[in-house]
Design goal:
This protein has about 200 residues and is α+β, with helices and mostly antiparallel strands. It has 2 domains: about 5-90, no CATH class; about 95-190, no CATH class. The protein has 5 helices and 10 strands, in the order E-H-E-E-E-H-H-E-E-H-E-E-H-E-E. It has helices at about 25-35, 70-75, 80-90, 120-130, 155-170, and strands at about 20-25, 45-50, 50-60, 65, 100, 105-110, 135-140, 145-150, 180-185, 185-190. The strands form 2 sheets. Strands 5-6-8-7-9-10 form a 6-stranded antiparallel beta sheet. Strands 1, 2, 3 and 4 form a 4-stranded antiparallel beta sheet that branches. A hairpin with a 4-residue loop joins strand 5 and strand 6 (about 105-110). The protein starts with 19 loop residues before the first strand and ends in a 6-residue tail after the last strand.
Length: about 200
């Protein structure tokens, strides 16, 4: 698809570096697009952590248009600049993040189906991690939800397992059943620390 013909009535509706944003996707989604899309149309994708990937889209009024490597080249975005540009563009949308505390675990939601993208923002997780006496563990069952808790909270960890599985199984925009830990100022696949 040639993006130069994509116009929806305003300059904001034209794919550009100003409306490129990241999206978090899971392995199932990646497998599906790999099987069903010709390579030239596949979204540009980077491993993030565990079974989660960063893809990119042009956030146009009312829709996201997947950004393939040819699309990115067409709008003049070098591959090495993609993540920085996309994350900077998404910052304004992250103002809608909502954190709810359920005593044993917390959740993050956001407007525009962007909650999972909060995983990309260190400035969200660094202060949150300091509020927990142990490590912060999170799961991202869908694009609309992040659940997190203290790694030593048996009730919180069970909530992540149970609710994470429930939301993952019921949502068609599922991302991952895995758990991730904020360790050394970055996300890693969760493995309990002995001791």
């Amino acid at each position: 698809m040639d993006l130069s013909n994509l116009r929806i009535g305003s300059p904001e509706a034209t794919p550009s570096r100003e409306n490129l944003v990241p999206r978090i996707k899971g392995q199932q989604w990646l497998d599906m697009v790999t099987d069903k899309m010709p390579e030239v149309q596949r979204p540009h994708c980077e491993p993030f952590v565990g079974d989660m990937y960063i893809t990119y889209a042009f956030h146009l009024p009312g829709l996201f248009v997947t950004a393939s490597k040819p699309h990115l080249k067409q709008v003049g975005i070098p591959l090495w600049e993609i993540r920085g540009i996309a994350i900077e563009n998404l910052k304004k949308d992250m103002e809608t993040l909502k954190i709810d505390d359920y005593q044993w675990y917390c959740s993050i939601t956001a407007q525009k189906n962007l909650a999972a993208c909060a995983m990309l923002f260190d400035d969200v997780w660094k202060p949150l991690a300091k509020k927990f006496p142990n490590e912060l563990v999170a799961c991202v069952p869908t694009r609309d939800l992040i659940l997190f808790c203290d790694s030593k909270s048996a009730i919180g960890m069970k909530a992540l397992d149970d609710l994470g599985t429930e939301f993952f199984d019921e949502d068609d925009q599922r991302i991952s059943k895995s758990k991730f830990v904020w360790r050394n100022d970055k996300w890693e696949e969760y493995t309990p620390v002995e001791g």
